[in-house]
């Protein structure tokens, strides 16, 4: 995903500039684990355009393996972060509908290959919120991870 962030304390409706950062919950966890020396593989889908190529380059720069990073669709998922200040918390606006990732299907994923030798599988609640297809894919991925004895780490957003 591509994050657009306002300046500290600035509201989105008042912003005329945004800082950009490639990331997203799963990618951020992957970067952290890679920084601790773990082999990390990302399973996702990005568009075959400059934004997708730059997102892949960003992941690789942290040592994340992109063997299972699929290409297709037309747009990279985005989100907008309105940074909080004082007692006003940060706000997030998601722009993931119709993204390449939201169009990912079960038949594109090589579950047995991905989970062979894996220790940990991480997924977040935003994945299941994007589409009914991703709800099914997430459930199938959890089942496949369990079949392979892979520890599941999930974080559901409330």
UniProtKB/TrEMBL annotation:
The keyword Transferase belongs to this UniProt entry's keyword annotation: yes
InterPro entries associated with the record: Carb_kinase_PfkB-like, PfkB_dom, Ribokinase-like
Name of one Pfam family that matches: PfkB
Any one GO molecular-function label of the UniProt entry: kinase activity
UniProt keyword Transferase present: yes
Parts forming coiled coils: none
Span of domain Carbohydrate kinase PfkB: 8-151
Family that this chain belongs to: Belongs to the carbohydrate kinase PfkB family.
Highest taxon of source: Bacteria
SUPFAM superfamilies, alphabetized: Ribokinase-like
Protein name (Swiss-Prot/TrEMBL): Sugar/nucleoside kinase (Ribokinase family)
Keywords for this protein: Kinase, Transferase
